[in-house]
Design brief:
heterodimer, A: mainly alpha, 3 helices, 72% helix, B: mainly alpha, 64% helix, extended
C-alpha cells in the first residue's frame, strides 16, 4: 500500500525536503501573523528547520559526521540567545504600547 | 519472536514508519503553530513540534543533539515563550484578527519557496551515502568513538564553543537590561 515510501528514512533528500517545508511554514508564520510572539515562534520553527537540515547532512555525508552535531548545538545556543533578546524586546515594547500586535507599532512612521 | 523486516499490509520498514509518523506530527503541529487563533495553544503545539523533531534527530543518528533539543527547546525556550505570552496578552488579543492583511501573498510566497527548495534538493547531487551512517541502534562508524561529539566540540570547535558562551552571557545581561521595569525618577 505504501510500498513506494519504502526506504524514505534512508535518503538525504527526504530530510532536506522536510526541512525545506518546515522552513516555509515558519516563513509563512513570520510574514502573516500579527502577534509579535507568534512571529518569534515562527523564527524558532525556521531555526529548527535549518538544524534538521544540518543533522541530515551529518547523518548522510561521512566527512561531516561529528561536525554536524556540534554545528547544530552552536545554532541551538544562538537560537536561545535570540529568543531571550527577542522576548525581552517584545515585553519592553508591550510595556509602552500595551499591545502585542506588530501592526500597531507605528511610532517610527509618525 | 522477531519482528518482520517490513510491516505487513503497509510494505515499508519500521524506521520508515517512524520517520513518517514523526514527520507528520512535526509538520502538522508546525502548521497549527502558524494558523491557530489562541496563542497559548500555538505555544503548546510548538512544544509538540520540537519533541517530534528530537525524535527525528535520534533517527538520524544524533542522540546527543536530540537530548540538547529537549533540554534547550522544550525545557527552556518554550517555557520562556509561554511566560512571555502570559505577560503580554491582553483580553481582546485572541479575539482580534490573527493574520496580517498580507496573509494570502505570504502563503503563496511560502508555498513557492517550499517548491523551489524541494526541486533544488531533489535536483542536486549531494554525494550522500546510500544509508544513514549510524543510528541509535546501529554501530558507530569505523575510527570514531560512540558519538564523536565530545572530541569534535572540545578540540576542533573549542573557539566557537567559548564564543558561544560569551554570546549567551551577553544575551542574558542584555535581556535583563531590556526587559527590566524602569523605575520612576532615574533616567
Amino acid at each position: 500500500m505504501l510500498a513506494f515510501l519504502d526506504g524514505i528514512s534512508r535518503s538525504l533528500d527526504a530530510y532536506l525536503v522536510i526541512a525545506g517545508i518546515m522552513f516555509a511554514v515558519g516563513s509563512f508564520g513570520f510574514l502573516a501573523r500579527r502577534n509579535a510572539i507568534s512571529m518569534l515562534m515562527s523564527i524558532e520553527l525556521m531555526l529548527n528547520a535549518v538544524n534538521l537540515a544540518i543533522i541530515g547532512f551529518g547523518a548522510f555525508i561521512p566527512a561531516l559526521h561529528p561536525d554536524a552535531s556540534v554545528i547544530a548545538l552552536i545554532v541551538m545556543a544562538a537560537a536561545a540567545a535570540e529568543a531571550t533578546i527577542g522576548l525581552a524586546i517584545v515585553i519592553a515594547i508591550f510595556r509602552n504600547r500595551k499591545t502585542p500586535l506588530v501592526d500597531e507599532y507605528d511610532a517610527m512612521r509618525q | 519472536m522477531t519482528l518482520p523486516e517490513t510491516i505487513p499490509l503497509l510494505g515499508i520498514g519500521w524506521d520508515d514508519l517512524l520517520f513518517l509518523a514523526l514527520t507528520g506530527v512535526m509538520l502538522g503541529s508546525a502548521l497549527l503553530v502558524v494558523t491557530m487563533r489562541d496563542i497559548i495553544r500555538c505555544g503548546l503545539a510548538m512544544i509538540v513540534s520540537f519533541g517530534a523533531l528530537a525524535g527525528l534527530y535520534v533517527l538520524a543518528g544524533a542522540p546527543f543533539v536530540a537530548g540538547a533539543q529537549v533540554l534547550v527547546y522544550i525545557g527552556a525556550i518554550s517555557v520562556l515563550i509561554l511566560f512571555a505570552i502570559m505577560l503580554t496578552q491582553t483580553k481582546d488579543a485572541p479575539g482580534a484578527l490573527v493574520f496580517q492583511t498580507q496573509a494570502i501573498p505570504a502563503a503563496i510566497a511560502a508555498l513557492v519557496m517550499a517548491l523551489i527548495l524541494a526541486i533544488t534538493v531533489v535536483a542536486t547531487d549531494w554525494s550522500a551515502v546510500a544509508d544513514r551512517m549510524w543510528t541509535f541502534t546501529g554501530k558507530a562508524p569505523a575510527g570514531r568513538d560512540e558519538l564523536g561529539v565530545a572530541e569534535s566540540l572540545f578540540q576542533d570547535y573549542v573557539l566557537p564553543f567559548e564564543v558561544v558562551s560569551v554570546l549567551l552571557l551577553a544575551a542574558v545581561v542584555g535581556g535583563v537590561f531590556i526587559a527590566k521595569r524602569e523605575r520612576r525618577g532615574d533616567a
